Amino acid sequence: MGHPAYKVFSSSRGNVFMAEIAEMLAESIGQSGREVEKSEFPLPRLEPGVVNLVVAPHEYFTLLDFPEDEIVRSAAACVTVGVEQPGTMWFEEGARYASYGPLALDINQQGAVELRRRGIEAYHLRLGYHPPWDAWGGDPVSRRDVDVAFMGSLTKRRAKFLSEAAGVLSQWNCDIRLFEVDGPTRSGTNHFLTGGAKSAQLAKSRVLLNVHQGERDYFEWVRVIEAMSNGAVVVSESSQGFKPLMSPDHFIESELGSLAGRLDALLRDEELRAEIADRSYDFLRKHLLAVDSVDQLLTAVESRLSGVREPLIGVRPGLPSALCRRGYKRWLPPRSGVATLEEHQVSTVLKGERQARTIIKDMILAEIDESRAIEALISTVENGAATYVRVHDTTAYSKTKPDVSVVLTHYNYADFLETAIGSVVVSDGVTPEIIVVDDHSDAENVAAARSVVDRFDWFPIRLVMHGANRGPSAARNTGASHARSDLLFLLDADNSVFPDGLRRLKEALEHSDAAFSYGIIESYGEDPDIVSFLPWDLERLASGNYIDAMSMIRKSIWDTLGGFDTEADRRGGWDDYEFWLHVAAEGYRGELVKSFIGRYRSHGSSWQSVVNLDTDQLFTYFRMKYPHLPWPELVEEL
Q1: N or C, fewer C-beta in 10 Å, the chain?
Q2: Is there a contact between 199 and 230 (Cβ–Cβ < 8 Å)?
Q3: What is the reported pLDDT for 392?
């Protein structure tokens, strides 16, 4: 008896990653000698001599514009191919559709086990070497410019790990590509790599770092096979379900707490790294071919399906799924135009709280304005000008020609200055100067700042002291006005820069036409995190700031735009966000350095608390100032 024909379905409106799996599956089926067709429409139906395979059912069925009962009947005529991790809403949605059909496949052993636990007949579709994924070809002299590659969605767990590993990662040339999950990623970009671009990137990477999304020790088969196929050694958090692969023969695994150390050790032993890369590549090509795995599995599937003549429906459709309620699906229950009493009560409470926050913030800002006005008056009387400044230079200041000017601002933060200055002093590959701007701290902090600067007398530092407090925007503008180089780097007193951070940012500007460069920042404190990890994206920027002020800016651009907006500062903060919006409005852009460049001290400062009391006024101000940016639509209140 011959093989049945196969139809492989996937959604063009779903994640492009799923489409790649569908493409690999269809090609492997064809290579096994079976007839295969890749399709999206029409809706799969039970046909004699045909097996319907639906890759990523949580996307395919969810995004179809058909009534629910038709979707269920179609799912009952299909073998689903699950690609999501157990414990996620995506897995639950896929399991719902898998329960309608005769059997299901899953690319991970844990997924298949979980489906079987629920009474669904499920088999593990083991992935393997697929020639189109190989951009390396086993070339022993290929150049690998990237030490550490990381590709994955952003989760709190991953962010925490990367933050805590930043000290190690900052020493290596990294290519960290994180993306936010707010819907399907439908196409590749310079940051989110797919297809040949992803393979090419892995082929020039020494190591692929793998950290699980959550606590489940799910082995990320696709990511691992793609890396091994291109000579990148996988250094992974401990996992289950990776046989026939073996650790440490084919990859390195470790508990999360020691993962960064294992990564660092491997990167310092290139001979061992290359040996593991060659061994895993050879194993894939000889013992783990995708076409062989697919052929063996489909033989079992065909035997199981040989007696099936009618669709099997194991679960009633029930209510719309969780994805439907989250806006991922094709339809939502219609909503009445009249708010319920409960909605009205909630709306009233929220409006009252918002109004109270606005009033409190306005009072605090008015008090700050009054205090600054008094200080300006005193400075005018004592010094002859509200904008009076005093300058103190180190001995080395006049003897150095810098290529980067670090503008380091502080207000009563002298205790942190030595660490911040010290981090700049040990920078590699640049010749920096530091302009420390004291925004009229108290006498004790001014004296402490002067003492710290004097201890670095051998390094080019200028201390600029405001005669009156003028706010962080004015302080940064003052620092920029004293800069002698063509590049400005903004640094707060309680932050620091890694030794290679300035060099990486400077090189990014030398190799691009960007107005400024920024890199990934470790946020440390009670809740470790990372910031400034997303690439320049105008629509994303308009929905909220994701770029920290710790950035390197061309001074020509700074001067053209007039520096930081003191009006934004007076309205309650986000002066750095205003500057990025100004950059965008004038047609300029930023360039992301996909490596760690510095450290950010996370703490609940009183000023940040004031800013967060009410942000509506700031957004209104930004929208009015830059009306042509792609602002998101305003959502009406209940």
Answers
A1: N
A2: yes
A3: 96
